[in-house]
Amino acid sequence: MIAITLLETPYGSLMKVTNLDDVHPLVRRRLADLGIMQGSVISLRKAMPFGGPCTIEVKGQWIAIRRKDAGRIVVEAC
Question: What is d(CA 5, CA 15) in angstroms, rounded to the nearest whole number?
Fold first, then answer.
């Protein structure tokens, strides 16, 4: 499997989180509170222009996160 960042994935494709080590510990904790941890299945839904936030979907819930943080989440295809 090829590991890429969440920002490099096509919109709407299901991806499995493989590594969150580069994400800041406080952000990692908040993501875990929302159900995003290693092994979670997520998909990139939207990325706002001009470096704005990204919207991801996890278990039917849409969450907006900073583009910087989305670029540090390593995923692979399911």
Answer: 10
In sequence order, what are the beta bridge partners of 54? 47, 65
Give me the CATH number covering residue 33.
2.30.30.90
What is the value of pTM for the model shown?
A: 0.91
39-76 pLDDT per residue, tens: 999 999 999 999 999 999 999 999 999 999 999 999 99
* Number of domains within the chain: 1
Alpha carbon of 1 to those of 16, 32, 39, 71: distances in Å? 11, 24, 14, 18
The residue segments making up the domain with residue 35 are 4-77
Whether 7 and 75 have beta carbons less than 8 Å apart is answered as no
Q: Specify which residues 19 forms β-bridges with.
A: 74
